[in-house]
Structures are given as C-alpha cells and as structure tokens.
Amino acid sequence: MISQQIVEYLKLTHGLYNTLVMLLFIHQGWLGLKIRQGKGANIPKDFTVIKRHRDRGPALVLMGLMGYMAGNILVYVDKGQIIQFPAHFIIGSSVSFLLIATFFISRRIKGPGSLWRNIHYLTGLSIVCLYLLQVFLGLNILL
Description:
Blueprint: H1 4-40, H2 47-79, H3 86-106, H4 115-142
C-alpha cells in the first residue's frame, strides 16, 4: 500500500502537471487563433506557426489523457473509488472526450473552407474553457 504522505505528493504533482498541460493548451489555442486570423486576411501563411500547431497537437492530447488517467488512478488508490469528486471527474471526462474528438476532427480538415475547421475551433475553445474550470475545481480539492 502507498503511504498517505506519498499520495499527498502525488496529488500535488497531478495538479501541477495538469496546470502545465492547461497552459500548454492555452498556448496551442493561441497558435490556432493566429493561424485562423491569417486565413481571413490577406496575410502570408506563417508555416512555422502552422507546423508547431500541427506537431504539438497530438503530444498535447496524449499529455492531457495521461493526466486524466493519473488522476483517476490517484483517486482510486487514495479513496477506493474513482468518482469521489463528481464534478471534477465529469469535467475531466469531458475534456478527455473532447481531446480525442479534436484529434480525429483535425485529421478531417481539408482546405480553408472546411466545416471541420470550425468544429475543431469550437472543440478546442471548449477544451480550454473546461481546463480552466477543471483546474479551479482541482485547487478546491487540494486546498
């Protein structure tokens, strides 16, 4: 069995990790907005920004899913059940679902007028908003 002191450190580590992931997603969203704004205006494409956004997206999805799984395992080890904090669990599950959905949606984007581009934008925006709420709920659990 894991000592309670180690569990407390793991909780803090989980919170710090997911806060970092949230900040990375905010940056990822900022890159996406920069790409999106360039499409509407007659501004030349910044391929370095596009490449960064495309390259980092799948890694961030994995990081987000790893944080979700780590949180579930941590709560199970600490409390003996997964749904100890229902709101935090539901929002985390929603973020995870949207991460997976966004990954697959991004693969369907073809061309500047693609409907999938708008869906990708909305799911990405939802992820960032839910992450902000998730971190707030997580801080309330920790403190």
